[in-house]
Input
Amino acid sequence: MKKTNNKERTEPAGITTSYNPVSRTMTILDSSGNTIQDFSQRDIEYPTRVVFEIESFCSSGCKYCSEGKDTKCRRNIPKERLVELIDEVEEMKVHELTLRGGEATEHPYFNEVWDYASKREISTPNLITNGMALDKKRVDKILANPNSKLIVSLDGFKETNSINRNPKQYDIVMSWLPQAIKEHPEQLVVLSCLYRQNYNEVPKFAKFLAELGIGHYHLPPLKRLGRSEMADENFVSLNEMNTLQRKLEEIAGEFNGFRPVISCAELEKFAENKTKDIPVPLFNEMYYGSGMKITPEGNIMVNRGIMFTDRFKSEINTPVCLEPLGNIKNKSLKQIWKESRDLRLQQEKIANKHYAYYLGWLNSLK
Ligand code: SF4
Output
């Protein structure tokens, strides 16, 4: 087998998932160490990524949000339970452990929980944040482990970002981001949700980020997520995404180390080579069932299970589509993962079948 500095996990099925904690890329190797182009969730013993939604509240109040809307009834996963779950994630050799919300930094014990997560040896810690409670000093502390990542959402320059996000967010984030990029260039990720209102501005914003020295710029397209049912006219077509990806690659040609990616499984760029060196967020998007998330109520959902909105549920009329895999109150993560295999496979089928609806390319499921 080839020698790498990656973190590797060999599965009973014989394949190895090889994860690079710096670039957040993952390659799949067969039993002879050769790169292979495909795998199924049947081939992995445990998830490759676990997302903890540790706190339901969020300070940003984005219009398209599927989370963080519930300001009256805040819920969070208790600190003691989080510590046990983090240990379990490490035992399962999960490649990525992501903390998010709502807004994770609003959790009353965020600092202690992050500190605990970022000292684990196997699972790489990621924080997804709106950045509103951060300053440069706090960012430095969060990024003390050189493998950890901070993923901050900004949809464009101030005016555009304020269309759907908190108008105060842009200035707060820009008060710490440029210096943080200089000092931690590989540890910061800027994430822009892609939709009609920021589509034309993205190349200019991408160039601005590249000039600041950012390496990782991720653009997930707007989707029908959770309770979010943003107006259908805001979705961007596949054709437009392909055009934009080409423009972003031209910018990447000018700036060494700038790696912009639109996280969409259908993109031309990924049509041939679906797994080799694909950034993990996209990887999980494509391989429904390779990750799972824990909600503030303790329910376990498969990543992309969040595609099943209330509207979807009412239209599809299939009982398995919104069902959680289990709840952490009475079972371990390992147990839930193992026992939910059939349900995950059924949900995968539904998710893959309706991917175009999920991305807004179809207005109806019929
Ligand atoms: S920052 Fe994220 S969690 Fe918070 S409201 Fe916006 S989209 Fe939702």
Remarks:
- The longest helix spans residues 238-254.
- The pocket of iron/sulfur cluster is lined by residues 58, 60-62, 65, 67-68, 101-103, 130, 153 (CB under 6 Å).
- The mean pLDDT is 87.
- The first strand starts at residue 7 and ends at 10.
